[in-house]
Amino acid sequence: MQGKRVLLGVTGGIAAYKSPDLVRRLREQGAEVQVVLTSGAREFVTPTTFQAVSGREVRSDLWDPEAEKAMSHIELARWADFVIIAPATADFLARLATGQADDLLTTLCLATDAPIALAPAMNRLMWSNPATQANVATLESRGIHVWGPGEGDQACGEVGAGRMLEPTQLANYVSNSIAPAGQLAVPEKPSKAIDVSDTGRPRSPITIVVRASCPRTTSPSSASTSMRRPCASAAASVNWSSLVLSLKSRLKRASGVSPRVES
Ligand SMILES: Cc1cc2nc3c(=O)[nH]c(=O)nc-3n(C[C@H](O)[C@H](O)[C@H](O)COP(=O)(O)O)c2cc1C
After folding, report:
1. CA-to-CA distance for 210 and 170, rounded, in angstroms?
2. Which one of 113, 146, 212, 250 has the largest count of C-beta atoms within 10 Å of its C-beta?
3. pTM, whole model, 2 decimals?
4. What is the pLDDT of residues 182-194, one digit of tens each?
5. 139 in Cβ contact with 133 (< 8 Å)
6. Any idea of the CA torsion for 256, 249, 95, 35, to the nearest 10 degrees?
7. What is the CATH number of domain 5-177?
8. Pocket test for ligand 1, best of 8, 10, 14 (most atoms within 8 A of CB)
9. Ligand 1: distance of its center to the CA of 91 in Å?
10. Per residue in 94-109, pLDDT tens?
11. Ranges of the chain with pLDDT below 70
């Protein structure tokens, strides 16, 4: 992740106390990290903590003329190579799913074309509520990654699904999602010629090869791009199909060609 720009959004959940550690883990892997806090997040954690661990001024207010002069919300949205919201509250999921832009973080998310990942964290009943589940389904259908939540003891004293994944795990997912330079590159002028496979179905000249990192690998062809699927327990909490969906739509946007997926 050397030199990659990660925008970390922190929303108002109890798990926000883990987010400074996520900044550290991302920076350990070479990323530059810009933190954006919602007003809810500021009830749990202070900008000073994030400024200290990120080495950058923390942004929070959409209506801050000084900050907007330095880097507007649109420039911030363009700056990011990857956006991760951790923790993501039920409220934030709802606002993002309905396309609201009522604060700096939701506005950024609408204005960026960088991949977005959410690490939900909330009470187990908030998580299983049909409204939250419908919002998650909507977000995933748009190619937004939803990582977690994990299961276990909750801050409210209950036990169940709703825990934010651990910072180390999230940092590794970000790192796996930001491919090394060149790996995700789409050929500048991909051939639009459609060749026809044995089955008679048109075959895309661009192929996404999903590699199992342990132990089998598939050799990608020259017009292909590859992703490493984390193995065993790590894979269980990644929504792999949404990751592939997102890559597919980015490749299609960049090339005008709908990629084929091989696994
Ligand atoms: C003590 C306390 C803890 C909270 N913890 C959570 C939480 O873990 N997850 C969640 O979704 N909402 C939680 N909430 C509710 C959110 O803070 C609230 O919905 C807020 O509007 C979220 O705003 P934001 O997403 O813009 O930060 C909590 C509220 C309080 C008062």
Report:
1. 20
2. 146
3. 0.73
4. 454 333 333 333 3
5. no
6. -100
7. 3.40.50.1950
8. 14
9. 7
10. 999 999 999 999 999 9
11. 179-263
- State if residue 190 touches ligand 1 by the CB under 6 angstroms criterion: no
Which is nearest to 150 in space by CA: 180, 175, 170? 170
pLDDT at 200: 39
- Active site (annotated) includes residue 156: yes
- Distance (angstroms) between ligand 1 centre and the Cα of 206 equals 43
**How far, in Å, from the CA of 42 to the mean position of ligand 1?**
11
Nearest partner of 253 among 198, 190, 203, judged by Cα = 190
Q: Which of 109, 156, 214, 231 is catalytic?
A: 156
Q: Which amino acid, one-letter code, is at 24?
A: R
For the segment 123-161, what is each residue's pLDDT rounded down to a tens digit?
A: 999 999 999 999 999 999 999 999 999 998 888 888 899
CB 218 within 8 A of CB 209: yes
Ligand 1 pocket: which of 10, 19, 91 to mutate (most atoms <8 Å of CB)? 91
**What's the confidence (pLDDT) of residue 154?**
86
Does any ligand 1 atom lie closer than 6 A to the CB of residue 126?
yes
Q: Angle, to 10 degrees, between the axis of helix 19-28 and the axis of helix 167-177?
A: 40
Residue 251 CA to residue 248 CA, distance in Å, equals 5
* 49 residue type, one letter: T
Question: What residue ranges of the chain are covered by domains with CATH 3.40.50.1950?
Answer: 5-177
Length of the chain equals: 263
Query: 94 CB under 6 A from ligand 1?
Result: no
The predicted structure's pLDDT at residue 230? 43
- List the Cα angle 58/61/63 in 5-degree steps: 135
